[in-house]
Amino acid sequence: MNFPGELAHAAGALPMILQESDEAITVGHGVLFPFYCGYTRSMVDQAARGRFEVLDAIMFGDHCVQLLGMADAIRMKLPGTRVIFFQLISSMNDPWTQGRSEESFAKLRQELEEFLGRPVEDAVIRESTRLFNSNRRLLRRLYEMRKEGTAPLTSVEMQHIVKSSMIMDKAEHTALAEKLVAGFENGTAAPSRGLRLHLSGHFCQAPKPELLAMIEECGVTVVGDDLFHGFRYISTDVPEEGDPIAALARWYMDRNTGVPCPTRVQNNVDWDAFLLKAMREERADGMIVLMAKFCEPHMYYYPEVKEAFEKADMPHLLIETEHEGMALESLKTRVETFVEIVKRREAALA
């Protein structure tokens, strides 16, 4: 989730965030434990089936123990592919966090230089930073217009926009995003269709489009999210002035303050407090939490979210998702019931 695409772009590479496949997991079953999350099992399955042989190098992060196991399994399956392991300090507000983060980004820069056989100049990093910031600002503008009602984009459409920015050439994607924003900029606000909802969760993998579509078919308008394939990915810009490595470290720290993540430890911010604040700003009537099955960081933190929302008398619904097929009809019944409960609650408070 903290992949510094700017640094890889400045090194002359095409940075891509690997995506969970829609295909059923087959070969990967013999490589990774079945109680690992769908994202890690899908990544290993794709590696075992040769899907990643087109890549020159793969960089792994350390957000959870399952990602560590995934990295080892893929390294075993792809012995000819350069594997870079990028480890960032997870304690966010200690006196040494900024310095340790700078060391990690500097080491990654050195590894990229050695691998690609060319220096990664400060000026080029700043140029890539400006490009990536422009892209993020455009997508954040879409989120603002979506909240205002002038950009009536569905959750599936927003996911396509964000996911494509994770794998496309950033300049090409930015040009397309500029046209999209311009097309909505002078639009008039449309009334929300049904309840206004916030979607939360799913840190590494994208929620299945059919699940997102089903939720909106239940008579709701999704007005905000903190999904990784959503606002979490584009929430924070990298400072464009000064030392670029220090700027990346600052970005790493700032983005957890802006949209806290359960994989990081920061005593002065709370994810549950962020969620309640976001919902007030979005004028959301409720929240649906999408929890990937076996996602340990989310499982550990969810009780705090649940307690905070109950204390604030804010309705929410937890849906556990998985890579394998989900029973959408039964889930739809749960969502419809939740929507009806929220509607009756709103009517009683009116």
UniProtKB/TrEMBL annotation:
InterPro entries: FldB/FldC_alpha/beta. GO terms for molecular function: iron-sulfur cluster binding; metal ion binding. The keyword Metal-binding applies. Keywords: Iron, Iron-sulfur, Metal-binding. It holds the Pfam family HGD-D. Belongs to the FldB/FldC dehydratase alpha/beta subunit family. PANTHER family: 2-HYDROXYGLUTARYL-COA DEHYDRATASE, D-COMPONENT-RELATED, SUBUNIT OF OXYGEN-SENSITIVE 2-HYDROXYISOCAPROYL-COA DEHYDRATASE. This is 2-hydroxyacyl-CoA dehydratase. The lineage of its organism: Bacteria, Pseudomonadati, Pseudomonadota, Alphaproteobacteria, Rhodobacterales.
